[in-house]
User: Fold these one by one.
Assistant:
Number 1:
Amino acid sequence: MAIRIYKRTTAGRRNASVNLYSEVTKKSPEKSLLVAKPKKGGRNHHGKITTQCRGGGAKKRYRKIDFRRRDKDGIEATVIGIEYDPNRSSNIALLEYADGEKRYILAPIGLKDGDRLVASEEGAEPKVGNSMPISKIPTGLLIHSVELVRGKGAQICRSAGSYARLSNREGRWATLVLPSGEIRQVPVEARATIGQVGNTDHNRVVLGKAGRARHLGKRPKTRGVARNHHDHPMGGGDGKSKGNRPPASKTGVLAKGGRTRKHGKNSNKRILRRRVSKRYGQLKLK
């Protein structure tokens, strides 16, 4: 991927950059795989705002992605093109199967037009884009679109540049090492796709101005200490006072190093080592 940094011709261009999407080879989406995506504005079915600072943005349609690839076992597919997807950070690849059906999958690094892919329960050649059970994948390879439950579809390692390294297998569990430092176990019968998700420069793009954020549906954010006491836990008081409490969200979730994972969750026992906090990681090691 490539990033173009604008010259400082105006205040909006200063420090701004744009993704050139050099991997993209197909400009228009497949109409048969598009569905309408109505805007919610951060509101639930009662009309109440449940997610702050969302609304507006450019109109877009959802691309149906095949995260399972189980009902196409053994059928060879050809990559028609790599496309941009406005609904996710990664690019997507359009596949045409031998029976004539077309489907979208996440585009890993190194996937090109004309490549032939296959998904198989019995295992296949361990090349980029092929999907198979983790029990059939050689250890040490990078994988993405990993299932946590057999047959449920990919749940982790789906964003741009993400991957998991298959460390080892023992019995009915396989150990994965994630980029965050977390080490967790998944069933060996669960499926994964070979390779690392593409569009790795996605996090390097700097919007540069508020207008580009509004096109993405991001509305302005008001600081918690600038709100009233009944609008935010850190609001109220005279001047810039946060009430002698650590920074938190509107719902009280800690913003710096606080755990957000639900206690007693069934999959907690499959996490062998939790990720290290980026902010306080060095302090914990000392």
Number 2:
Amino acid sequence: MEEKTKKHFSSKNKILFVVEGDFSFSLCLAKAFGSASNICGCNVSLDSKDTLSLKYPRTLNILPELEHLG
């Protein structure tokens, strides 16, 4: 796979995002790379998917997109 870069991030690196909120930054980077296989986003509040969707309504749309991208 060809390396793609966005500012400080490279598609060749393994990337962990902590306290990602609605996971929109992970999705943005995954779209730029064409894959989310090297990205791990987590919400350290340990909220359930239902609780996350109350705090961050866009999460219900974002998570399936991330899953689709790997």
Number 3:
Amino acid sequence: MNRFYGTGVAMVTPFQADGQVDYEGLKNLINYLIDGGLEYLVSLGTTGESATLNKQEKRKVFEFTAEIVNKRVPLIAGLAGNNTYEVVEEIRVFNIPGYDAILSASPHYNKPTQEGIYQHYRAIAEVAQLPIILYNVPSRTGSTISAETTLRLANDFTNIIGIKEASGSFEIFSQIMRDKPEDFVLISGDDAITLPMMALGAVGMISVSGNALPRQTSDMVRLCLQGDYKTACKLHSSLVEFTRLMFAEGSPAGVKTALKQLGICGDVVRLPLVQVSSKTAEAIIAETKKIVAQSVPA
């Protein structure tokens, strides 16, 4: 499981002005992130606006991403949905070379019971050819994967290897860390609280902010893994305002604004998402410039 220690980034999907996928921008982003020292990448998670891509677009993005990554870092595919049978079939036939695991969010909108969530992931685990990472993100799905359900899945299926936790509940985090199998990993899904989660035993994070600031975010996480929380806290504090701005008007519009400022790709998002307001854009640009300037050696 050491492949998923450290910092992963849930990559944005760059779009051209006409809304088509910007593959040159995606190539720029992938190389920027790998050069920035990230440990692994996630293709077409929530941050990748996967809900607004059709099946053909998703497959092309998955294939292109694997080609550009070229096994330089581990790669995770985001495959999820609220129709269990459709998700199971999508995962069953997923055969694109270059991927090391699947990140699958709990079903959204349906608001299943804990037994429904368990059975959803059981159906996935029984057909998956790659390891599965659960994803608990109640702010988007409308339901929470309880610690009990996470632990039940972790103990019942050896190919369910970890969870990306974005519930914000330290009660859930603590219970998972206390009772989980030794090789089951807890990964932060919330940039803002990664440091305290790692103090509890999380092995890193899957970041949104890291799209724009891969070096800074991955440095902080590595310091935590080394037990140097004093230095890590300084880096964490320097990123607090940037992280807040990334979500001020929704993700990934915020981080795409920063990426445009950095010259990596454009800031176009697909409806129903829209670009951030001019006021928020100005604040993001200013904070991005500030952090980049502070990071340049004197």
